[in-house]
Write a structure and sequence with these properties.
Pfam families: Radical_SAM. The protein is α/β, with parallel strands linked by helices. It is 30% helix and 18% strand. Strand 1 and strand 2 form a beta hairpin.
């Protein structure tokens, strides 16, 4: 897919930040910048369904769109087939909703990717953000064989607190099933990575510390499991009107205690903690597309209701239409080299201005 103009701006010299200071670009940042702006690399976030079997109290999604249609699946496969001859690297993140609710689409597209790789031999990495309820040992092994080897699964504390905030649609808890799945994965010989996302709120500090003891003794003895600590934030209109009670406030001490509890076996607590280079959000990347269940294209998995995040549509033959004005809003960090725009382009996202004499959309 074509990158915006001026995207290959030189990275030599220093990076000016808002404080008036400067940062030298590390080799890691330079590589990520190059890959994110190269037409030979493609980064896709695919939502096979926007329905979910959970009703988390702080969720920002409305579950309006159902399973991905056959036409959209065909469009994704055609897009990948067209890109394959010049592709050096492909990254796919399965998102939702809950992606395991339309596992047929995940498998179909993944098999197509594996077939393309046998012919073209491009690099490939695939991940899935899942609630972990339907991801049992058998399914994990099958998905690993299809190249999906990285999974993020959220836990909101030990059983009582987790079941309070991460409920099934029928109101029952989900902890026991997820925990059982997590334990069962250890019996597999496959190479995978399970990121345990621990969601910290103002209500679950004691429960989370109890959970961490279980995680340390039962899971972190296996290097395929890692921990990522995140604060719960209000990202939009949630299922519950009292979502604010779960938003993390004054929890830094809790986070420090959790780090100590797991012995900083937070083996790679998102490597962003360790790097001084500016963070680049997937939504800021010129070669990233989010493909929704109805074939519409976007950039951000949070701003699903914002018109500025509907940047185009995928056709059955693999061609797609992009709104250049909207694309420029999301990728502006690669033009002006602003740290905030690279780190979160949704932050202070500009309004759309129509310019006379400019073609605002293009079919690719």
């Amino acid at each position: 897919m074509p990158a915006p103009r001026r995207v290959n701006r030189s990275l030599e010299g220093r990076y000016q930040v808002e404080t008036g200071g400067s940062l030298k670009f590390g080799e890691r940042f330079k590589k990520k910048f190059f890959v994110a702006s190269s037409e030979n690399y493609l980064n896709l976030t695919i939502l096979p369904t926007e329905k979910c079997n959970f009703r988390c109290t702080y969720c920002y999604e409305d579950f309006a769109l159902g399973k991905m249609s056959t036409d959209t699946i065909k469009g994704i496969k055609s897009l990948l087939s067209k890109a394959a001859p010049t592709l050096k690297g492909l990254s796919v993140n399965w998102f939702g909703g809950e992606p395991t609710l339309h596992i047929a689409a995940v498998k179909d597209i993944s098999r197509h990717i594996m077939a393309l790789r046998r012919k073209r031999e491009f690099g490939y990495a695939a991940s899935m953000t899942t609630n972990g309820y339907l991801l049992d040992r058998e399914l994990l092994a099958e998905l690993c064989a299809l190249g999906i080897r990285k999974y993020q699964i959220s836990l909101d504390g030990d059983k009582i607190d987790h079941d309070t905030t991460r409920k099934l649609t029928n109101g029952t808890g989900s902890f026991a099933k997820i925990w059982g799945n997590l334990l069962s994965f250890r019996g597999l010989e496959d190479q995978f990575k399970i990121i345990l996302r621990l969601n910290i709120s103002s209500c679950n500090s004691v429960s989370m510390l109890k959970l961490c003891e279980r995680i340390k003794s039962r899971l972190l003895v296996d290097k395929r499991y890692v921990v990522n600590i995140e604060k719960i934030n209000n990202l939009g209109e949630g299922i519950s009107s009292d979502v604010e009670q779960y938003v993390a406030k004054d929890v830094d001490d809790t986070i420090a205690r959790i780090r100590d509890s797991v012995g900083l076996s937070l083996r790679d607590q998102d490597e962003t903690d360790k790097q001084s280079d500016p963070y680049i959000c997937y939504a800021a990347m010129p070669n990233h597309l989010m493909i929704r269940a109805d074939g519409s294209l976007g950039k951000c998995t949070v701003m699903l209701k914002d018109d500025r995040n509907i940047i185009g549509h995928l056709n059955t033959d693999g061609t797609y239409t992009l709104d250049n004005r909207k694309m420029e809003l999301w990728t502006r960090g690669f033009v002006d080299m602003d740290a905030a725009s690279l780190g979160c382009p949704a932050y202070r996202l500009p309004s759309i201005h129509t310019r006379k004499g400019v073609i605002n959309s293009v079919t690719i």
